């Protein structure tokens, strides 16, 4: 019997953002600005937390690690996307493709655990303030952070390893702006059933555990807020937790929409833009630039380097 003539794909072409060539320059400028602000803001936040001793608390340690993961997510996707706006062939090698999958999966998995850890930290701070330093000790904080990175690394390695068992011979065109697991399944000549099964076996427990932790923590926080006697304290706590919960909700809604039952076409792209490019920017503003303590520390640092003039209070004559 004659053998089927299949050529094995060792590189791919990213076909995302090809529909509106007249908007290419505007899209490049917009995504470049988002990438620049995201990287400078998040890495600046990490440096600020590292330098300032008063920010060496569990909340800010988790926040610093979240900023690192948001930077990792942006670095995994955005540079190649920006390059492809003005590239003729839009090629990406198989090794580069697997690297994108690994770092994106690593960052998104770590984000899930870190958001859950931050929600639990807020629960302890608001609902059990007298036991905060016992329940959220430095040792536990380090263990939670280390466990997050170990679990995220294992989760990413499993999915990349399973991708390498597939043979890509149907097409070398990925209908997306970066390499991701679901678009790669559509190009596989090997049945990806085992890969899809592993997504549900490994990813769904992570989603269920982290979402449950977030929901239970914020449910208890809301009850505690309504029991507060001080209207000012109640308003301040509700304002902070509402913005945090909004950010978490947007992240999980986009993520769950993206890993819904596998579909064809460009429907994934708008959601993918939001959770890989926009959310890292939103996290920067919601968790950091709206935080009074972070703003005060940043102001003091800028004043110490004479970048910002100190505000002088009016002196009575």
UniProtKB/TrEMBL annotation:
Q: Which InterPro entries match?
A: GPCR_Rhodpsn (IPR000276), GPCR_Rhodpsn_7TM (IPR017452), Olfact_rcpt (IPR000725), Olfactory_GPCR (IPR050516)
Q: How does it sit in the membrane?
A: Multi-pass membrane protein
Domain of life (superkingdom): Eukaryota
Q: Give the GO molecular function terms.
A: G protein-coupled receptor activity; olfactory receptor activity
Q: What is its main location?
A: membrane
Report the residue ranges that make up the G-protein coupled receptors family 1 profile domain in this protein.
41-258
Q: Which PANTHER family match?
A: OLFACTORY RECEPTOR (PTHR26452)
Q: What is this protein called?
A: Olfactory receptor
Q: Which organism is it from?
A: Sciurus vulgaris (Eurasian red squirrel)
């Amino acid at each position: 019997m004659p053998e089927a003539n299949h050529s094995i794909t060792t590189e791919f072409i990213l076909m995302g953002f090809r529909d509106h060539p007249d908007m290419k320059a505007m899209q490049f400028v917009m995504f470049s600005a988002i990438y620049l602000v995201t990287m400078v803001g998040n890495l600046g936040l990490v440096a600020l937390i590292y330098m300032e001793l008063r920010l060496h608390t569990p909340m800010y340690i988790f926040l610093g690690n979240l900023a690192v993961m948001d930077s990792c997510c942006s670095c995994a996707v955005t540079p190649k996307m920006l390059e492809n706006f003005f590239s003729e062939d839009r090629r990406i090698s198989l090794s580069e493709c697997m690297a994108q999958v690994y770092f994106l999966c690593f960052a998104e998995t770590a984000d899930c655990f870190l958001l859950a850890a931050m929600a639990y930290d807020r629960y302890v701070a608001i609902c059990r303030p007298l036991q905060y330093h016992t329940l959220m000790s430095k040792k536990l904080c380090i263990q939670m952070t280390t466990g997050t990175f170990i679990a995220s690394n294992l989760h990413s390695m499993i999915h990349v390893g399973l991708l390498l068992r597939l043979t890509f011979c149907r097409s070398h065109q990925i209908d997306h702006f970066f390499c991701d697991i679901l678009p790669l399944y559509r190009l596989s000549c090997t049945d990806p059933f085992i890969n899809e099964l592993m997504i549900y076996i490994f990813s769904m427990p992570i989603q269920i555990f982290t979402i449950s932790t977030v929901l239970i923590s914020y449910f208890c926080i809301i009850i505690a807020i309504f029991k507060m006697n001080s209207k000012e304290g109640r308003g301040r706590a509700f304002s902070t937790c509402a913005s945090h919960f909004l950010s978490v909700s947007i992240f999980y809604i986009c993520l769950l929409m993206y890993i819904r039952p596998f579909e064809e076409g460009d429907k994934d792209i708008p959601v993918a833009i939001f959770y890989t490019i926009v959310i890292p920017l939103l996290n920067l503003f919601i968790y950091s630039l709206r935080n009074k303590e972070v703003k005060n520390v940043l102001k003091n640092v800028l004043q110490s380097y004479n970048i910002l003039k100190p505000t002088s209070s009016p002196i009575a004559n």
